[in-house]
Design goal:
The protein is mainly alpha-helical. The protein is 51% helix and 0% strand.
Amino acid sequence: MPDSKFSCGASRWSDRDFLRAFEDLSFPADLFHHREHIHVAWLYLKSADPSRAAERMSEGIRRFANHHGATQKYHHTLTLAWMRLVAAALVETPEGYAFEQFITAHPQLLDLNLVDKYYSKELLRTAAARETWVPADLQPLPELGIHRCS
């Protein structure tokens, strides 16, 4: 039976508790899905410049995958592509939105097939795409360095 603090769903946690559980590797792997990846990306992008946020995300997902015996699941290009998509949505989001408001305003981020607009399946299956950053081959992704104008 899962720990009771996880059974209610991460959406009911504070952002701080959610991120702490991810970073200290106490978040159960079987409850860490696409939505949770997007939530971590959003938190990192809100708290650091886009380049540093991408580094933290890459390092964090690798650590999390390694800790849970899923090293083969890490995909560098997909990790950074999703960071760019979240960053672009964040620029269009009013200041002060909570994650639930953000994801409600940008439901496309919950669609696992969103990256198919940018990448062919063939390219994403390559070792190069899995291990390093590979630019999109179907259409350009938003730049990660986009900053919100105040």
